[in-house]
Specification:
Largest sheet of chain A: 6 strands, mixed
Distance between the termini of chain A: 41 Å
Largest interface: A-B, 24 and 28 residues
Shape of chain B: globular
Radius of gyration of chain A: 13 Å
Oligomer: heterodimer
Strand content of chain A: over 45%
Order of helices and strands of chain B: EEEEEEEEEEE
Helix content of chain A: under 10%
């Protein structure tokens, strides 16, 4: 069965610093992987997804993620954090029955 | 633009009441989903539907039921609300391919007193 682990329920960075949010997955089939963002009092919004092909995936708002099969990882990065990036981020893997398996989420805090 | 709407942003109900949460999508998606979101637990799937009148239990279906009479509408029903069902409820929809992302509504924050 698929599962997703997000290391760190809270990550705090300074404005302008690198953002790194970690995601590891387990899957018995080639995975489809997603990162979603949730701003306060809103639903989830897709940041980026990996299906096939290029392992470095670019998303909205300057985020990108790299699929590393050997490490079963799909970490999310952004070179320079902005105050508006403060939100909760969820990693997810698609299972064979169209459902998404979500990690427990990482709340990103951006310090001025 | 895909739009998923939920009938209420905030709802307060009493223990034992029957509660209906409505979700409507405008993209002709076959799949629709109901999740609950609790701090530290991420999103947990309650039910999903892959066609009109078709449904499947998710990870935490106990105490809930669903209805999908029309393709665009998916309802979540709490037969007899309890305080442990106080939570954020999120609806989502998608096309039926594994690589398709789900589109989410804004959520309903339900408080059961």
């Amino acid at each position: 069965a698929q599962s997703v682990t997000q290391l760190g329920s809270h990550v705090s960075v300074s404005e302008g610093a690198l953002v790194l949010l970690r995601c590891n997955y387990s899957s018995s089939v080639p995975p489809y992987l997603f990162w979603y963002v949730q701003y306060p009092n809103q639903g989830l919004q897709l940041l980026l997804k990996y299906t096939t092909g290029a392992t470095l995936v670019k998303g909205i708002n300057g985020f990108e993620a790299e699929f590393k099969k050997s490490e079963t990882s799909f970490h999310l990065t952004k070179p320079s954090a902005h105050m508006s990036d403060a939100a909760e981020y969820f990693c997810a893997v698609s299972d064979s029955s169209y459902k998404l398996i979500f990690g427990s989420g990482t709340r990103l805090l951006v310090r001025p | 633009d895909v739009k998923v709407t939920q009938s209420s942003r905030y709802l307060v109900k009493r223990t034992g009441e029957k509660v209906f949460l409505e979700c409507v999508q405008d993209m002709d998606h076959e799949n629709m989903f109901w999740y609950r979101q609790d701090p530290g637990l991420g999103l947990r799937l309650i039910y999903f539907s892959y066609d009109v009148k078709m449904k499947e239990k998710g990870d935490i279906p106990e105490g809930y039921s669903v209805s999908r009479e029309k393709k665009e509408r998916f309802s979540l029903i709490l037969e007899s609300a309890s305080t442990n069902q106080t939570s954020m409820y999120l609806c989502a929809s998608s096309y039926p391919q594994l690589y398709n992302e789900q589109f989410f509504g804004p959520g309903t924050r339900l408080t059961v007193l």
